[in-house]
Amino acid sequence: FISSLGFTVTYTFWVTPAIFIAAFVLAILVNQGLTGTYLFRSVYFLPVVMSFIAASLIWLWIYHDLFGLLNYVLLELGLIREPVIWMGEVRTSLPAIIVMIVWKTAGFSMMILLAGMQSIPDELYESAALDGANSFQRVMHVMIPLLKPSFALALIISIAGSFLAFDHFLVMTRGGPSNATRTIMMYVYDTSFLYFRLGSGAAMAIVLMFVLLALSVVQLRFLRTETHT
Hints:
about 230 residues; mainly alpha
């Protein structure tokens, strides 16, 4: 249980910033109002409506050591000398899954951040520009402070989703290699329905519930503080 919880925390620690960076960059690009914005917004959001099982199977094919697209491209470019077993090695399995998750979920966080960006009055940007602020300074000192409620909402959704990760790990790694990618939800599932230790599985699920509850309380207090401010 402790090992699975530790891996879940590690996975959450790495995947959450990756999702946020991708979502923030995409939201800024879409918010520019350039030609084709609606098309690109739909393309970025399209993976979100796909099930985790379908997305996992697609990326499992991409990562296949013999027939996968990724190894083929890397071999053709001369970046690797032999196929990489992406899902069979500890050092590559987690980064590979993180890439898939960013592709799958960044569009959802992008929409949350985009809604926050579009709620900021243009007058604030114009006032900052008149005061001599460049584009980077307007983003850092106008946009980001006003996006804190949107950041907080997207953050709690991302963290909760990471702690409840199950489908994609089950399909892509089955907890391997050597149980190195077994999440806490996989451990609860195995304990309850594979080993039929329903009492232990229920106890661990309750512990996980309190962890998510604590995160939700922190989130609500943060949003309340931002709203009052």
